[in-house]
Amino acid sequence: xxxxxxxxxxxxxxxxxxxxxxxxxxxxxGEQTIxxxxxxxxxxxxxxxxxxxxxxxxxxxxTLQVLAENLSEKGIPVLLMDIKGDLSGLAQPSTxxxxxxxxxxxxxxxxxxKKFPIExxxxxxxxxxxxxxxxxxxxxxxxxxxxxxxxxxxGIVAIIFKYxxxxxxxxLDIKDFKKLLQFVTNEGKEEIQNEYGRISTASTGAILRKxxxxxxxxxxxxxxxxxxxxEDLVRIDENGRGIISVLRLTDIQDKPQLFxxxxxxxxxxxxETFPEQGDAGRPELIIFIDEAHLVFDQASKALxxxxxxxxxxxxxxxxxxxxxxxxxxxxxxDILAQLGLKVQHALRAFTAKDRKAIKLxxxxxxxxxxxxxxxxxxxxxxxxxxxxxxxxxxIPTPLARTMLRAPMSRMDxxxxxxxxxxxxxxxxxxxxxxxxxxxxxxxxxxxxxxxxNKAEEKEIKDAAAKKERERKAKEEARRTTSRSNSxxxxxxxxxxxxxxxxxxxxxxxxxxxxxxxx
Length: 518
Prior knowledge:
The chain has about 525 residues and is α/β, with parallel strands linked by helices. The chain has helices spanning about 5-15, 60-75, 100-105, 135-145, 150-165, 175-185, 190-195, 200-220, 255-275, 295, 300-315, 335, 350-360, 375, 415-425, 430, 440-490, 495-500, 505-515, and strands at about 20-30, 30-40, 50-55, 80, 120, 130, 245-250, 285-290, 320-325, 340-345, 385-390, 400-405.
């Protein structure tokens, strides 16, 4: 048996699947594609997560596109993070090309152009079905981890949520939360202190600054109503194909905190909403996170721990997470260890640091007698990749240098007219793109503060009026006393006058005068 025949047997046995699977392409021996040595991914293991890595321009996005198309054909819904803006072409069929036909002839099956059902989503100012979440849906623990708060600051956030629950204050958007932070240290300080304990002004100031940082990245568009129902991510079209939700994020690359905030909230919401699936044989939803380093670059230790926990637990809900990035080292090791499917496109070695990164990347894959993994990683062509998946028993398959199949849909973006047509035909657009701003904590607290201010003004006026009444009463009393004293003075006769005018005195005077005249 020749080496080529041995290799063919090695691959076909290693990638054998009893259940349904997705064909990624054909294995290569050296530079030669071995026709019909098909590299497959069993549907059963797709919820074990995965990684698509490689240098810029090596074909990562097209691999993501191929996976999304084939998942949709199998009736599995997909959510894509379209950060570079080149995935909307899924809605139109490929125009085809002789080189595509040549590639598929080498792989072993013919090429067929198709379009797929997509839903265009947005969390920014871009056009599309708007995805929002309320502050309440985050909860105090997740919100504190996203903001990277200290233990004391996290305690204050917990108190704010408790106060809102106790006083029936809907906590919906950022202005609600900011208003509460101001309220608990000003007008409501005494009330909060009596019910929950003292809150430091310095701590609320620090929390407010972090909230403002998210707001400046566009968080005011993301937080609020109408809240997006994650059940709308798992829809099937009339032909039984899974709908591919394309989240447009081309204006989010310079806003990593907003992106990581959104991703973590979405994963937490999916985990809380979806039931345990067990060993169902196929995933419920696959989520592709493009430019995954944006999630991890500025994440705190607490946030990384939260992501790691979700990655470990969410697969039991039938959810598969696929991280797309340039280098495997962009993904934390504890999370990388949880990823079953690995598709590694070419890496470039320009510096000593690059060579070290390639060596580490090669160690992520099973050993192979057919490849010097470290060497081949720098020689892979566009549309070629090292592939290793988990078979139906959960065992890693043989490492295969793979000639990947071409996308069936357009490998380019939609025109503005085509994109608008997709949005106009959306059944979700009118459901979520209403401008709702119902009465919530912000308005209720404003009313409460107004009542407090009116009560304080009334107290001040009442006190001033009482003081004025007391002053007038004292003035009236003083005047009354003065008039009384005056009356007593005018009616009492002078003692000398009284003597001089008395009858006895007058008779005595007249008696003396008579005697003198005689």
